[in-house]
Amino acid sequence: MFELASFGILTGFISGFFGVGGGMILIPMLLVSGFVMKEAIAISIMQMVFSSIYGSFLNTRKAKNILKDGLIIGIGGFVGGLQSGFIVSNVSNLTLQYLFIAILIFSIIKIFIAPAENKGETQEKSKLTLFVIGFITGIIAMSIGVGGAVLLTPILVGFLNYDLKAATALGLFFVIFSSVAGFTSLSLNGHMLFTEGAIVGLASLVGVYFGIKVKNMVHSNSYKKYILLLNTIILIVMLYKTL
Questions:
Q1: Is the Cβ–Cβ distance between 204 and 12 less than 8 Å?
Q2: 8 A C-beta contact, residue 229 and residue 36
Q3: What whole-number distance in Å separates Cα of residue 81 and Cα of residue 139?
Q4: Which pLDDT value is given to residue 47?
């Protein structure tokens, strides 16, 4: 229990600071601790429900200008996330781990190329485009136990010209929709670990609070470097665990 609570606090800080659901840091820790991939996914998704709702509440004032797009993307993510229970039931643990690695590589490349601050106008996109982005992100993310921000953030920064910090705030807001859908789908398919997920989720609230506090004090260029560093470390851990 103490180990899971410690994981929750650390994951919550990462979630608040980087605007992610926390799965990309929590899942490797759970795998190293002896959980199998599908168990780690279940715990991760339940933790995201806690951290994303609380983190988005704390981000509200700074995220008001992007919540309109976030709502459309979030609805798409919710619909996509509902498909995750079927995918987890029919795809092997190893395949899910390889998919996770591919998502991390994509994220690192896009964030490395994109500027930390956008000096131009945000690219206007149709509601259908935003919904489809959310839908596809939701399917992939909930099937590998991450909230979707690790995939959504590079899309927002690299293709829709969002500032990095604004994109991470929207990403955490998106996680509310995708994680609730994933939690519902995995629960109905008998994959959810309620006790372990609740312990990690409640502990993560402490970390989320301090993560957002620190994020608001960091310069955008330094923030970009921290995100790249985090993703690279996680990629190394996943490659070590998988290969």
A1: yes
A2: no
A3: 5
A4: 92
